[in-house]
């Protein structure tokens, strides 16, 4: 196994927000609802977890609601920075690491295979 280290710097979402369109790791806090249908004694449980998200300055949800300065996950769930009144909020965020061996998060088209070979240390090939 070939290891590659990545440094993570967490930013408090109360202090600063990423640039619009930034892919980030977001630390989210909230409460899991109690499942009283299967367990009448169930209680809500608080959580704090990390999810990949995108930060955007403006987002329109499927129901037409417009959100500003928010984090959106791959399911379209919108979460606001901590303290701004959503059920689940983002306490901290960190830029995702760049692709292995690169300083960018994205490679497209014909450059992909060369970037992969370079990251794997493989000789040029078809």
Short description:
By secondary structure, the protein is mainly beta. It has one helix at residues 111-120; strands at residues 11-12, 23-32, 45-60, 66-72, 78-81, 89-95.
- Tell me, briefly, the overall form: globular
Strand arrangement across the biggest beta sheet = 2-3-4-5-6
What value does the Rg take, in angstroms? 19 Å
Low-confidence stretches: none
The major β-sheet equals: 5 strands, mixed, barrel
How much helix, percentage-wise, in residues? under 10%
Strand content: 35-45%
Count of helix runs = 1
Structure description:
There is one protein chain. It contains one helix and six strands; from the N terminus they run ββββββα. The chain has 126 residues and is mainly beta. The protein has a five-stranded mixed barrel. The longest helix has 10 residues, at 111-120. The relative contact order is 0.22.
Name its key features.
1 helix, 126 residues, mainly beta
Fold topology:
Blueprint: E1 11-12, E2 23-32, E3 45-60, E4 66-72, E5 78-81, E6 89-95, H1 111-120
Parallel strand pairs: 5-6
Antiparallel strand pairs: 1-6, 2-3, 2-6, 3-4, 4-5
């Amino acid at each position: 196994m070939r290891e590659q280290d990545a440094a993570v710097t967490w930013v408090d979402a109360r202090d600063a927000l990423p640039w619009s369109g930034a892919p980030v790791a977001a630390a989210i806090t909230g409460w899991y609802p109690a499942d009283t249908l299967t367990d009448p004694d169930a209680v809500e449980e608080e959580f704090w977890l990390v999810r990949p998200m995108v930060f955007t300055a403006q987002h329109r949800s499927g129901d037409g609601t417009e959100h500003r300065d928010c984090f959106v996950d791959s399911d379209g769930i919108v979460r606001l920075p901590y303290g701004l009144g959503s059920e689940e909020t983002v306490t901290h965020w960190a830029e995702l690491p760049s692709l292995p061996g690169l300083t960018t998060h994205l490679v497209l088209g014909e450059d992909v295979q060369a970037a992969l070979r370079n990251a794997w240390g493989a000789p040029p090939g078809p």
